[in-house]
Amino acid sequence: MQTGQPSRTALGAARLRAAHQVLDEASILADPLALRILGDDIELSLDHAHNHPSGPRMRWFIASRSRIAEDALNMAVDAGTTQLVVLGAGLDTLAYRTPLAGRLRIFEVDHPATLARKREMLAAAAIAVPETLSVVAVDFEREKLSERLDAAGFKSAERSFFSWLGVVPYLTEAAVFSTLDYISQLPGGAEVVFDYVNPATSISAAAGRAAHQALAARVAAAGERFRSYLDTASLCAKMSAAGFRQIDDIGPAELAARFFPEAERLAPTRGGHVMHATSI
Questions:
Q1: C-alpha distances in angstroms, 235 versus 213, 227, 240, 241?
Q2: Is the four-CA dihedral 41, 47, 53, 55 of positive or negative sign?
Q3: What stretches of the chain show up as alpha helix (H) in DSSP?
């Protein structure tokens, strides 16, 4: 991410979420604010989706990870969760459209420049900000998440849910596991949903490795290079050791089988994973 500038990859993800509403008729994720927050950008969003080197799969993956997080949040609230933390909130609209807003204290966490740009876009789109929402500026690599959340009124003794989408690959492993350790040790108990990418060396097919490397090159060209690739078995072991009791890793094939169009369900074993884990 370029210093002092809002995230370009966050804008790219928002464009694909918006395009999903139009091109796929919101078949995976219904987000009525995805188009509104982008304003006049919708034509660029559709062009971005049509010309994306990954084809429709990246669009479906982005919609799928949000769907998994939102379904898990609904269940968590029914089980007693009172706080939602959206880590790396970008242009995600969950906090502004969830019917659960009145039952949750919500914290949106991101870099100051990205948060400032989002506030401008929300105001331009006349999207109301819930009274229960707090905005928390933090640099995951240089600041302690715990300190920034505590200062914003987060209650560590209450059950919490963390949505952490489109962020982990851009952090160092040290920052990733520091954050996971913090979440797993919260005294009130917590759940987290995040996505991550396996190392290219774990992909057997040459075409798969090439696609993996091409994606890394594209985000690097946007000034936001991938900094961590996580092996699934090692990640699960470290999360278990950190204190997560239930760990559900949803890989590319399962994502495709669950969410993608029928003709595209025979997914290759490459692509992003979505992790859902709980310390409760």
A1: 21, 15, 9, 10
A2: positive
A3: 8-23, 42-50, 57-78, 94-97, 112-124, 145-151, 173-184, 206-221, 232-242, 252-259
CA 241 to chain centre: 23
Q: Are 149 and 83 in contact (CB under 8 A)?
A: no
Q: Which residue has the tokens 């991101």?
A: 110
Domains and CATH numbers, the chain: 8-278 (3.40.50.150)
Give per-residue pLDDT as tens, 34-92: 999 999 877 888 888 888 887 899 999 999 999 999 999 999 999 999 999 999 999 99
As a whole number of angstroms, the distance between CA 275 and CA 250 comes to 6
Residues 62/64/66/68 CA torsion (nearest 10 deg): -150
Q: What is the pLDDT of residues 137-178, one digit of tens each?
A: 998 778 899 999 999 999 999 999 999 999 999 999 999 999
Which tokens is 27 given?
């078949």
Structure tokens at 229: 């690739």
pTM of the model: 0.92
pLDDT tens, residue by residue, 205-235: 554 555 555 555 555 555 567 899 999 999 9
